[in-house]
Structures are given as C-alpha cells and as structure tokens.
Amino acid sequence: MLNTLSGRFLILTTVFVMLAEVLIFVPSIARFRQEYLQDRLERAQIASLALLADDMLETELEAELLQNAGVYNVVLRRDELRQLMLASPIPEPIANTFDIRNATAMALIRDAMMRLARPTNEVVRVIGEPVRDAGLLIEITIETEPLRAAMLDYGLRILVLSAVISVFTALLLFWAVRYLLVRPIKGVVGYMQRYAQAPEDARGIITPLATVVELREAEEALQQMQVELTHALRQRERLAQLGGAVAKVSHDLRNILTSAQLFTDRIEMSEDPTVRRLAPKLVNSITRAVSLCESTLAFGRAEEPAPTLTMVPLYSVVDDVVAGETLAEDSGLVTIASEVPADLVVRADPEQLFRVIMNLVRNARQAIAATGKAGTVLIEAGEIGPDWCIQVVDSGPGLPMKAQENLFTPFQGGTRKGGSGLGLAIAAELARGHGGQVRLNRTGPEGTAFEIILPKGDGALQAVV
C-alpha cells in the first residue's frame, strides 16, 4: 500500500492538510485568547456599571459580581480619573501585565504560545478599552489557569476537526487519483506487458483513450514506439528469411557461374576483335558474381565482411561499372560516362567499392529509363581536404519525398516498381565499412547527385560494420 502511487499520495495529502491546519491553529489560538480576555473585560465592565448604579452594594453581592466576571478586581478610568470599581483579595502578586488595546498579531501569537507552554497558574493584569465608550480604559486582574484550560479545549477541538477534514480530503483525493491516474497507468502497463509477450501481434498495440493530456501523450508515444518496433521486427524477420534464401541460391549459383568461367576461357581465344575486347570484362563480371555468392548478401543471414583496404586506381573500377551498366542498358535512352582522373588512386576494397558505385549508377540508370526520356549518368571524382569524393550525377526525375525519408532503409528506400530497396542500403553499409559515407547531395526535377566520401587517413580502418 505505501509503495503504491495512490498510497503515497494519500499519506502526503494527509500530512500537507495537517500542516496547513497547524499553520491555521497558531493564529486561531491567539485569536481565541484575545477574545477570551476581551470577554472578561466586558463582564468586568458590566459588573462595575452595576456598582455605579447603586453605590451601596453589599459585600456579598460585590463578590458575586467579581466571581461571575471571573476577575479579582476592576479598575475603570473615566475622565482621566482612575477608580477602583470592584476589588477582592488577590492570592499572589501580579506576574505580568498585558495591554490588548493595540497589540500586534505577532505579539498576540507570542503571548498565546507562551501561555500554552507555561502550565503554572499566575495572576496577571489585563488592560483593554471599555465597550460603548464607557471610559478611557479598563483594567482587570485574573488567574491564568482558566484561560489556559479554555485554550487547550479550543485547540483540541480544532485539531480533532482538522484530523477529520484531513482524512476525509485524503480519502477523496485517494479515490480520485486511483480513478483518474492509477487506473489509466495500470492500463498502459498492461498493454506494455502484453506487447512484450508477443511483439509481433498487432493486437497488443495500445489504442490511446485517456482524456488527461499527459496520459494521452504517453499513450500516443507508446503507440508510436510499438508500431515502429513491430515494423522493425517484421523487417528483421524478412531480412532473416532473405538471408536463408540467399544462402541456398548462392550455393547453386556459384556452381553455375564457375562453369561459365570455364567457357570464357575459350571465348578469349576468339579471333573477333570485339569478342576479345569484351571477354576480359565478362570474366571480371563473372568473378565478382562468384565472390558475391560466396560471401552472401549483406542484409541476409551474414554480415558484410570487413573490407580489405588497398590503394586502388579508381579509374579502372569506374570503367568496369560503366562498361557493365552500358551493356545492361537496352533502352538506348541513357548515356553513362566517366570523368574520373586516370591517375586518381583511393584507399578502398576494390570489390566493395565497385558494388557501391554500381548500385548508385544502376539506380540512376533505371530511374531515367523509367521516364522514357533520354538522360545521362556521369561519374566524377576528386580530392576534397582529407577525403576522396566520388559523385554520381544523373539528369533523372529526382527522388520522391517518401524515398528521401527512407533512403538508406532496407525495403523502404526503393523508387522503382518491383525494386527491393536494398541498393542504397548496401552502398551505405559498404561505405561505412571504409569509414566513409554515402549521402544525397541534391535531388529535384533537374536530376539527382549522390556523393561517396572516403577518408584518406587510417581512421578508415576503425569502421568495420
């Protein structure tokens, strides 16, 4: 009970209400003391007026008037004349004098607290103003024991009432907190527990229903997190399935490509100059395909292997990409060109760099071909400070907004119907393995430009995916 939110709220409410009542109690008890003394002054004044009406009161009647007033003697000052109106023997010397005519609130509180803290009976003098302008002042002498007893009784009644109010208020707040806060929070916790048991089950995703703004925001945040997590889990499952499929396909495809390699050896012996010129590129393409099958796809069952960094002539890698994509271009609409300096050497894994550039060029080529209009894909490269920069620029239609938001996310960044959306994701991962990055430089109706940034320093060796 004490460890629950509602239980602690109940205790804190009770404590705070009692604290507020204590702060009210102190000035209240001071006010009660002032009213008690004022009442005694009024009674004494009434008794003195009875004496003024009849100067020949008997001693027994005078004593009865003093007893009814609760005082020992009464002094009334009228017209600058101080007159002892009623008197009786005082059992002990006067201990203190209190003037309540112009007493401040702090003085009244101080005197009241001192009287509560002092249980000894004393005789004190009290000075006040007569009612109805019956004189300049009135003085009485009284005992403090009846005053203290009346103050204790009054204080006890206030404390009991305060306790009842505190408990009642705390119970109301306890019920309100349990109904308005604790119950909705438990509902959210229940959704979280059910979702944790079966995150792939969409029925476990919370439906925001709270009317309290903060709880509503919490439910909406939880719903968004659950939706994104469910989507990520499904995507991960698809990737795992893809990895299993690729592992099976790569085994058989590797054998087929190995056989194709044997046939290319005879093709190189052909006397046709065109065949002899294209045969080495065909051999390189088949060799890369065999290597790719042996390592399996990066987003399948296994992760991409660490790059083997060497100094690579960039022109030769780009030339292979241009040749391969030019042969694959059967629409006759796309022109693929390279403006890479022949002497530019970069630090990279040649096979992985080939795949990065190839994915970018192929995406650009397919995007232009899908429009049915002529266009160009240009590969440029250079050095910018501590990095090598390779640019793939096309004159295509540009990337749609949805593709821009999920550029490097597997299965979501595709722009072509039937595409897998893996090309950019593979390129980005391979670039990160080199310590670099692939980024979108610009896109729009005038075309799209991607940049491949490769660091020159040894920091590239630190980033193995």
UniProtKB/TrEMBL annotation:
Lineage per the UniProt record: Bacteria, Pseudomonadati, Pseudomonadota, Alphaproteobacteria, Rhodobacterales
InterPro entries, per the entry: HATPase_C_sf, HATPase_dom, His_kinase_dom, HisK_dim/P_dom, HisK_dim/P_sf, Sig_transdc_His_kin-like_C, TCS_sensor_his_kinase
Pfam families cross-referenced by the UniProt entry: HATPase_c, HisKA
SMART domains the UniProt entry points to: HATPase_c, HisKA
Catalytic function, reaction form: ATP + protein L-histidine = ADP + protein N-phospho-L-histidine
GO MF term list: phosphorelay sensor kinase activity
Main location: membrane
Superkingdom in the source lineage: Bacteria
Name this protein carries in UniProt: histidine kinase
Domain spans labelled Histidine kinase: 248-458
